[in-house]
Amino acid sequence: MAVHMHGRIGESIKRKEDGRFLRGKGSYLDDFVLPGMLHMAILRSPHAHARIMSVDTSAASAMPGVIAVVTGDLMAQHKLAWMPTLSGDTQAVLATDKVRFQGQEVAAVVAETKYQAEDARDAIVIEYEILPAVTSPDGAKAAGAALVRDEKEGQKDNHIYHWESGDQAKTQAAFAKAHKVVRLHTFYPRCHPAPLETCGCIADVNGATGKATIYMTSQAPHAIRTVFALVTGLPEQQIRIISPDIGGGFGNKVPVYPGYVVATAASLLIGRPVKWVEDRSENLISTGFARDFHMTGDLAVDEKGKMLALRVHLDSDNGAFFSDAQPSKFKAGLFHIVTGSYDIPTAHVTADGYYTNKAPGGVAFRCSFRVTEASYLIERLVTNAAIELGIDQAEFRMSNFIKPEQFPYTSATGWVYDSGDYPKAMDLALQKLGYDDLRKDVEARRKKGEVTGIGIASFTEVVGAGHGADFDILGLRMFDSAELRVHPTGKALLRMGTKSQGQGHETTFAQIVTEELGIPAADVAVEEGDTDTAPYGLGTYASRSTPVAGAATAMVSRKLREKARKIASHLLEAAEEDLEWEAGKFYVKGSPDRAKTIQDIAFAAYTNLPEGMEAGLEGVHYYDPPNMTYPFGTYAVVVDVDKGTGQVKVRRMVAVDDCGVRINPMIVEGQIHGGLTEGFGIAFMELITFDSDGNCIGSNFMDYLLPTAWETPKFELGETTTPSPHHPLGAKGVGESATVGSPAAYVNAVIDALSPYGITNIDMPIGPDKVWAALRSKGVTE
Amino acid sequence: MKVSMNVNGVERGGDVEPRVLLVDFLRTNLRQTGTHIGCDTTSCGACTVLLDGEPVKSCTLLAVQVQGRSITTVEGLAQGANLSPMQAGFHEEHGLQCGFCTPGMMLVGTALLERNPNPTEDEIRWAISGNICRCTGYMNIVKAIQHAAKATRAGASTPAAVGAAAGGE
After folding, report:
1. Which chain B residues touch A247 with a CB distance below 8 Å?
2. Helix-helix angle A393-400:A371-389, to 10 degrees
3. Is there a catalytic annotation at residue A366?
4. A293-465+627-777: which CATH number, 3.40.50.920, 3.40.50.2000, 3.30.365.10, 3.90.650.10?
């Protein structure tokens, strides 16, 4: 009997989740209306650093529709003026003593309508005494710098942490013997994930039962539930977090934000549901930013161009509260993957974090915990070294790559790379680009006075956290989970601890069930995001859903298949060892006609079981990966620069990705397109910056520029497949590769174009103003 | 203030403050939540609707400004169970990920094909350049609109499909 197996691994089936979105029937946070629901608006600090002298809420309280005005003092009475951060620091929920960044939460109004809440918010009067603002790590270190965290016991300066990785002595010795040392100092500026849907919640605390149901734009609902239990003291079984459809996350929706805590407290005190949805400015000025790393890298090479050692120091600008979302043990995230794709015998990495009067919350903006900064630094440094050494940048990379036969490879900072074939991805990228001819073309164009160049980046990512013994968030091991129930009619429900924000989980994870258990993807419903129904998981970020929860899905499917074998043996009256599995059915060896489909078996699981067997066909698996996965690839970019205006035009963008086995290639390519576009935005457009008073510049979409269809280049994709040896399906995860790998490729192309004029660095975002100024400084343009 | 307008072919009305934005009227008063709010500054296009067939950003119009006029939102694109060619194009070409920008993108695409049934890639990119997508990188959105254009042109050659195509806009 033939079984239709639509949707196995490797098939680009259309997405199961599309239907509701195409009809405008997605259920995003702001679409929910609960009976009796109130609306909350937050008053934020206009100053970067100021002492609160007085708070007058009398006028606001008297305004139409106002139910309550919540201040820091009120929160303090309930011991909720401060909350713990994901990095073990504390963060003000509503300010009581000082404001420490522009946009910090100071008070909130709860009213019958959104308009009334905002009207009353504007009627709250706060008197401030303005203090000098600290706006950079250098400023934070300076003698006499204002103390940002004066409320913290024992905090005498603005230093948060010092962190090291690698072997200092061995690295020093290697540098002493180096033929040449190439240095790059570069700033990876503050940018923002800026998902199109902002953050928000609806808190609904039931006064009769005490149950708190919180609808929330969260990428990690279970972890948030546990954090909420710890912050509020509510018993965890009385907290239900529901993450509905999410309009993009990119890391922005991992942390706990003060608005969630205030709305929950307000609902508890008032006894009605409270909705809070931030506007775009609030999102950009107060929620999880990304990067803001000042990095200096030194690469030591011998006379043959072999890399000998890498030394890196970085200063991290963490803002007013150390609330980075990253594994507890790693203060600068996974930055120590900074040796990248290269066989560098020794490395030493040092990092210092600083408080400043800027928004807190360094999140992984579509990168696996600071891998983007690491990848950017090494790929920029390698290109600069190639230029300085007079070696072709592709050749220099090729001769220093970790070789395929060296895997599993232990890096100088202790990472164990699972698998890779870097030359293969590089070869494919160069071939697609027509590199040799293009290089000649570049030379010919330069002779005619054109400014043009080629940039390459050969990134290696580290994704799919845990292993839980090494990777945890606030002690919670970074496993993930899948629960699979097969109904009597052979249809299935898969629930997971992850949470899609557009990545297509409802399709991809159904396909894993199809592959492993033979149930067509169309028959597998995938649910995520409700902590009362889904198994506990750490959520979706750091490209971990396929590496971790995808593995859990495969494992639980295999568990069910083993039970199905026993049932099939009963139905077919054949010994288990005489049965063969073929996608979707068991049959008796040598008699393919004697078969039972998974649907037959599912029905039997409820109707006709072997004596003594538990009924049902369902299970759950918690998967704690043995290692991270290491996707990689080579990206190559061709740019043309207008000498007169400094405008950079991306002429070509070739991206070869190796993310191991691809479950749904269409969805994988969609992820790569999106990441290449965000990388393009970061390289050329996106910037959150501050003036010397700490005023945020980049607080709306007219200042914080996102790429539109008009600027965004067309991408030429390529693929190699090097399976992960430890993942049950060989998959590695891909959501972030393109954001990690592409910024350096774009910038390297610009630097290659400008290198004939002795220009070796321009920090992102590379706007025409910076390029024009650089060319002008070299007398190339007027 | 009393306001009335035709939304997706149905006369709708309400009593609103003059300052109420069209997007809030659609979402809150009429509970048509397919129109989204992304930026409040006319930059992102998540709130795009068609006003008498032309794309406008409903976060920058007052509800009372559209008194007596016709609005098409994403909820008006499908004909019952049948997706419009634009919706089908987005599905077939993987033109959406999180879905938040999708209503605005599809409405702009629909309006574009009304006046230009066979747009070039540059014409499509220019038409959607007032709408931001943070997920897809636009290549598949371009393909989706091309897919819809092709289907609409093919449909227009058979009399039976003309009605369906016109009704679907």
Report:
1. 36, 38, 98-100
2. 120
3. yes
4. 3.30.365.10
Which among A191, A367, A659, A696 is annotated as catalytic? A367
Do the Cβ atoms of A219 and A230 come closer than 8 Å? no
Buried b (16+ CB within 10 A) or exposed e, A376-395: bbbbbbbbbbbbbbebbbbe
- Could you say which of A225, A272, A366, A561 is catalytic? A366
**Marked catalytic residue, from A91, A102, A116, A219:** A219
Q: Mark whether A201 is an active-site residue.
A: no
Closest CA to A43 of A93, A106, A95, A91: A106
pLDDT digits (tens, 9 = 90+) for A313-326: 999 999 999 999 99
Decide yes or no: CATH 3.30.365.10 for domain A18-25+479-623.
Answer: yes
Q: Do domains A18-25+479-623 and A293-465+627-777 have the same CATH topology?
A: yes
Specify the number of domains making up chain B.
2
Q: 3-state DSSP: chain A helix, strand, coil percent, rounded to 5?
A: 30, 25, 45
Instruction: Report d(CA A652, CA A639) in Å as an integer.
Output: 7
Q: Give the H/E segment covering residue A516.
A: helix A505-517
Residues A615-627: tens digit of each pLDDT: 999 999 999 999 9
B136 vs A14, A23, A670: nearest CB: A670
CB distance B32–A24 less than 8 Å? yes
Cβ–Cβ gap B78/A22 under 8 Å: yes
pLDDT at A2 over 50: no
Residue from A625, A653, A629 nearest A713 by CA: A653
Query: What distance in Å separates the CA atoms of residue A685 and residue A703, rounded to the nearest whole number?
Result: 10
Secondary structure element (H or E) that encloses residue A654, with its range: strand A648-658
pLDDT tops 90 at residue B164:
no
CATH code, domain carrying B7: 3.10.20.30
Residue-wise pLDDT for A324-340, tens only, equals: 999 999 999 999 999 99
Strands of the A98-99 sheet, one edge to the other = A98-99, A50-56, A125-130
Please say whether the beta carbons of A46 and A552 come within 8 A: no
CB–CB of B44 and A196 under 8 A? yes
The two structure tokens encoding residue A415: 């990472």
- Give the dihedral of Cα atoms B150, B156, B160, B162; nearest 10 deg: 110
Q: pLDDT band at residue B157, thresholds of 50, 70 and 90?
A: low
Domains of chain A, residue spans: 18-25+479-623, 34-131+198-246+253-286, 293-465+627-777
DSSP H/E element including A126: strand A125-130
Nearest C-alpha neighbor of A734 from the set A633, A619, A636, A647: A633
pLDDT tens digits, B93-125: 999 999 999 999 999 999 999 999 999 999 999
Q: Is the pLDDT of residue A129 over 90?
A: yes
For the domain bounded by A34-131+198-246+253-286, which CATH number is listed? 3.90.1170.50
Is B44's CB within 8 Å of A246's CB? no
Listed residue (B29, B26, B27) closest to B15, CA to CA: B29
Residues B125 and B63 in one domain: no
Residue A367 falls in the annotated catalytic set: yes
Query: Which amino acid makes up residue A612?
Result: G
Same domain for B143 and B95: yes
Joined tokens for residue B101: 């920008």
Domain that holds residue B132: 85-167
Which residue of B28, B102, B126 is in closest CB contact with A21?
B102
Contact A720, A659 (CB under 8 A): no
Give the pLDDT score at A1: 39
